[in-house]
Amino acid sequence: MKLKPTVLFTLLLFFSLQNFAQSGVEEFVQEGIEHHDNGDYDKAIKAYKKALKLDPLSTLVNYEIALSYFNNKDYELAIKHSDIVLKQNKEHVLQAYMTKGSALDMQGKTKESIKLFKKAIKKTEGHYLLYYNLALNYYKLNALDDAEENVILGIENNPNHPSSHLMLATIHHQKGNTVQTLLATHYFLFLEPNSPRSEGAYAMLKENFGGNVSKDENKPNTINIMFSPNDDSQFGAAELMVSMLEASKTLEKNEGKSDDEMFVENTESFFKVLGELKEKKNKEIWWTFYTAFFYDLAKSEHLETYCKYITQNVNENAQQWLTDNEEKLADFDTWLKTE
């Protein structure tokens, strides 16, 4: 059937207007993103409003304006526009859940935020950022076991998310679990060695490695080790070993060794002892993920490079060593890719 000229013209006009509107939406969105990235959320919101006049139900525009409203601390409007995205259940659903959940939390509705993230996990079949934010909310409520459970699920979804490892380390630092804190902190520093957060993570690492050891001022040759076995017996031997390694710095055989040298030696011993303690029945992340990786690392020729790499943010000697040993750093990178 042939179309009449008037019908054909109407269709062409419709598609032309549609393409023009879409082009305008994209232009305004790009403008808004640039303003948002520059921290000018008011201008970003103005640009997104222009885009919404052209396409009020655009999931992209509604998500972007919700994010700008969130950063502008207008949480009600952030939730409103997130809901427009969620009701359509199309693109940008994950981002909308994240924005709405965070907005609810910022309003002091943390329990409501937890319910939303749980719903989001079921609907989206899970995503590491949903697990992370759910864990963060539980942590704020001091529900440390729930926080740990969910952040581990997030790590299993994406082991390369630094914040998840840092949260897991923080949870166990608060619980007083030395070995778990050390393992998660090490992996965080491996992923993020040179950021504002790295310095605090390294301080936590050092605190847990030497926190149970002190010198007796009245007896210069005496070292005190305060050791309380963890209820979780699978780490008891490892915790004692950590204290013994720190105390070993005072032994005659270690006189004259620098702090850098002792850090490398003690890190290697820690990883190797954990690897040797691992049993087939150990199925937790501490053994199957952290210990498995670090034990292989300790047995490789790259342990020193690793130690310099994770301490580059707090140690000028490490920075210089990495500059002087670019080949070793490249070899370490190659080993990681093959592993």
TrEMBL record:
Q: Which domain of life is it from?
A: Bacteria
Which UniProt keywords are listed? Answer: Signal, TPR repeat
Q: Which InterPro entries match?
A: TPR-like_helical_dom_sf, TPR_rpt
Start-end of the TPR repeats? 25-58
Renumbered to this chain, the signal peptide range is 1-21
The name of this protein is Tetratricopeptide repeat protein
Source organism of this protein record = Winogradskyella pulchriflava
